[in-house]
Amino acid sequence: MQEKKNRPSEKQKSEALEELLDLICGRLQAYSGKTNYSDSRISLEMGKDASYLSKLYAKLFVPSLQGLCDICDYFGVSVVEFLHPAGQIEQAMHSVLQETEILLLLQLIQDCPQAVSQNLRSLLILYEQKNHRIL
User: Fold this and answer.
1) Of the four listed, 57, 65, 85, 124, which is most buried by Cβ atoms within 10 Å?
2) Using an 8 Å Cβ cutoff, are 54 and 40 in contact?
3) In this structure, what DSSP letter does residue 97 have?
């Protein structure tokens, strides 16, 4: 008998789908709220039936990938921009860049300790202690 490898349960799938629908509906409401148009008008302008957004808000269906792209095209944003609140991606990238820069400086300290000032070394040691790392 072959063992299932980390497959999500039906309950986990259902919860993930519910979260996805909540996210899509929340972002859709945020974008449509910036217009003065009704949901039916937006639906029609996207080339859908007039009740498309109402049905989506009621979670009567999950939009297809093409449907999600149509929504994003209507509001003039990418799928990534639509699914992530403004600034969230930039903040995550900034954190990653900061972490990478710090790790590179740590490597420099380890490789060339004589080239690094004592002040920089002290700051990086504090950073390491804060994050429970050992130099």
Assistant:
1) 124
2) yes
3) H
User: What's the confidence (pLDDT) of residue 77?
Assistant: 87
**Whole-number pLDDT of residue 79:** 84
Quick: pLDDT tens for 64-111: 888 988 999 999 988 888 887 665 555 555 565 566 666 665 666 666
* Residue 85: partners with Cβ closer than 8 Å, 6 or more residues away: 27
Residue among 78, 49, 62 nearest 17 (CA): 62
In angstroms, rounded to a whole number, what is the distance separating the alpha carbons of residues 50 and 71?
A: 14
In this structure, what token pair is assigned to residue 50?
């007039």
- As a whole number of angstroms, the distance between CA 82 and CA 71 comes to 9
CB < 8 Å & 24+ apart, contacts of 109-112: 109/135, 110/135
